[in-house]
Amino acid sequence: IIAVNGDAHKELSSQFGIKGFPTIKYYGMGDKAKTKPQDYQGERKFGPMNKMIQSLVKNDNVITVKKVLDVAAQIDKAGKVAILLSNKNSIPPMWAVVAGSAQLSAIKFTFSTDKNADIVKALEVTSFPTIAVVSKNEEGGYAKAVYSGAIEYDGIAKFILSQLNGESAPAAEEGAEGSEDTPKKEAPKKEPSNPKIALPLVPTAFTKHTLEFFCSSKTLKIKGQSPLCVIALNEERNLADVHAKYSNEPVLFFFADESEEVEKLSEALGTPLAANDVLLIRPFKEVAKYTVMKEGEDLDAFLGKVLEGTVSFTKTDSFPKL
Question: Are β-strands 130-136 and 142-146 bridged in parallel, bridged antiparallel, or unpaired?
Answer without folding.
Answer: antiparallel
